[in-house]
Amino acid sequence: MRAWIGILIFVAAACGWYAWSLYQWWTSPLSIDEAGTVVVREGDTVGDLARRMARAGQLGHPRRLRWTTQIAGLAGALKVGEYVVTPGDSPERLLARIVAGDVISYRFRIVEGARIATVLAELADHPRIGQTLQGVAPATLLTDLGVDGAAGTSHGEGWFFPDTYRYVAGDEDRGLLMRAHRKMRSELGTAWAGRAAGLPYRTPYEALTVASIVEKETGRKADRADISQVIAARLDSGMRLQVDPTVIYGLGEAFDGNLTRAHLRQPTPYNTYVHKGLPPTPIGMPGRDSLHAAVHPSGAPYFYFVSRGDGTSEFSTTLEQHQAAVQKYQLGANR
Questions:
Q1: pTM assigned to the model
Q2: What are the respective helix, strand and coil percentages of the chain, to the nearest 5?
Q3: How far apart are CA 255 and CA 270, in angstroms?
Q4: Checking DSSP bridges between strand 105-109 and strand 81-85, what pairing results, if any?
Q5: Are 69 and 46 in contact, with CB atoms under 8 Å apart?
């Protein structure tokens, strides 16, 4: 009888010691020297996670992770995603983040004025974004995304709002672009609903195109309404817009950074020195300020503007005034 009592005491003591050591392991920092990441995939068990971490040198005694999560009732609560692992993490703290779905998020930025071809290329360079749009052309992008375009075009230019978008590993390029597209539709709708009376364009898409030109012409907020005014005045009077960014857009990859007189004569669909009216699509992604300026031209009597070379523009009412400004700020600066 005494022997059995002794055995029971020994077993109880061993169990208590093991439970204590398991608790110590569960609450003690992982034996790692630098931060890393761990990925929980669809269908993963705690055992899968433990083995993956052990192979990466992030976890000792991987079986203990399965036992402790079962005891804690967390075994079936893993959330799919990518998680940070830091030297100060204990298995308990790491599992709490995984159960809470506290995944690592990343940022993707669409810059104001960016072209859709650039946006697509940058999306393709993000290794953590799921790629579904390889080979998709800007000219058919809206159709490929399954959304309706405007003015009979499925061209994606201009239709994605410049902003910083958060995503997690595995999010698809398609979903991120759809978020940016919905944001642009909302921003454009708001701007169009509050537009000034008497604009020389009839649709929100035309306003989007004007906004893209304003965006490319200046980064100075104070000049945008006046540039919008020049565009509106020229459209109203039947004058050609004669704005360089549209010419540059039409040249595409052939443009080497030096706009020449020969370029101004090339009859691309976007050359507003050759063709009257707006170009067939926007020429970049306009931000909120440019959208507002497009539908709220200043009302000043301007028909011309020229860059002063310092980020600001000189506006003129008459051709004579404009020629003098060109002489002063462009030709004079090149002497």
A1: 0.85
A2: 50, 10, 40
A3: 13
A4: unpaired
A5: yes
